[in-house]
Structure formats: structure tokens, C-alpha cells
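Colleagues,

For the teaching module next term, I've prepared a clean inverse folding example: a structure given as C-alpha cells, and then the sequence designed for it. I'd like students to try predicting residues themselves before seeing the answer, so please don't circulate the second half yet.
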């Protein structure tokens, strides 16, 4: 009798399971969805234009309030005011000619990243010229108005520090006088 009750209970459970609605098909994974990256590309273009114009306020306006800039050979700058101050210091020392080339842009919901390379020519206030090239990764956050702002940025040079030996396959930092 006990076995018959267990069999009856198991049969009832199978019947309930068989009558349950079929589970919905799994949603397409977020990585498989292709979202238009033009908003992120626009931020990249505005960033380079603001740097080339020497406009620290315009650069800082592209950042989230809690953004973190992690430049090579310098401490991190956190927040709009610190980021603007960093660029004001840079622009006070040199005129920048920056070219940025995106190589990968990925969006995951309200976050996106852009990875690429840069070429930079700095004309220093004394007239000397420094050329650099390197790579960057920028993390962007979608804003409530659907625009994008920079949340984190890290970049570094492909070239050795002045006076350091060039790594295998690396270039050499160029510094020229007028």
C-alpha cells in the first residue's frame, strides 16, 4: 500500500509537470545582441577634438562625475574637477595633436568599452616636440538620456621611457628640437 501511494504521488507529480506551460525560450545572450556603437564613437571623436583644442573643460564634460583617469607615468585623477585639473596642467605645458583609432567597441547593457590606439605629437612651450604612440581602454556608462560618458580611462605608451632600452619589437620615443 505504501508503494502504491508513492507511485500514485509520483504519477500525480508527472501529470502536473506535463500540464505546466512550456518554459519560454531563453533570451538571446547579451553578447550576441549587436547595439549601435556610434554614441561611443562620438565620445571618442569629441575627446580627441577637445584635446586638440586644448579645452580641459570640454574634456572633463565628457566624463561621469565619479570618473577615474589613469594616465601613464602619473597618479590617477578621480572626479570631474581632478580630471579637468590634470588636463589644464597638460595643456599648460604643450599643444597636443592627438589621433585616436578605435579597434574594438563592445556594449553590455548600460556599459560599454572602447579599445584602440593613439598617436600623439606634443609641441612643448619651449618649442621642442615629443611624439608618442600607444594604446588605451575606456569604459563608458550610458546616461539616463541615453548618451555615453567616460567612466574609466587607462592609456599607456608603446615606446620606452626616454633613456630606457627599447623592448623587443618596440619603437623609440622621438624628441626633436625646432
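(Answer key — instructors only)
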Amino acid at each position: 500500500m505504501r508503494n502504491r501511494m508513492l507511485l500514485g504521488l509520483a504519477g500525480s507529480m508527472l501529470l502536473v509537470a506535463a500540464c505546466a506551460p512550456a518554459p519560454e525560450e531563453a533570451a538571446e545572450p547579451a553578447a550576441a545582441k549587436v547595439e549601435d556603437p556610434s554614441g561611443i564613437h562620438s565620445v571618442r571623436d569629441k575627446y580627441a577634438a577637445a584635446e586638440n583644442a586644448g579645452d580641459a573643460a570640454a574634456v572633463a564634460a565628457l566624463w561621469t562625475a565619479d570618473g577615474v583617469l589613469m594616465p601613464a607615468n602619473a597618479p590617477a585623477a578621480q572626479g570631474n574637477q581632478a580630471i579637468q585639473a590634470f588636463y589644464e596642467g597638460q595643456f599648460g605645458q604643450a599643444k597636443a595633436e592627438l589621433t585616436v583609432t578605435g579597434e574594438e567597441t563592445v556594449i553590455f547593457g548600460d556599459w560599454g568599452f572602447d579599445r584602440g590606439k593613439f598617436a600623439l605629437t606634443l609641441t612643448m612651450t619651449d618649442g621642442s616636440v615629443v611624439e608618442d604612440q600607444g594604446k588605451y581602454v575606456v569604459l563608458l556608462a550610458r546616461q539616463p538620456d541615453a548618451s555615453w560618458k567616460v567612466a574609466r580611462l587607462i592609456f599607456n605608451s608603446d615606446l620606452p621611457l626616454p633613456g630606457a632600452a627599447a623592448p623587443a619589437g618596440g619603437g623609440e620615443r622621438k624628441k626633436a628640437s625646432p
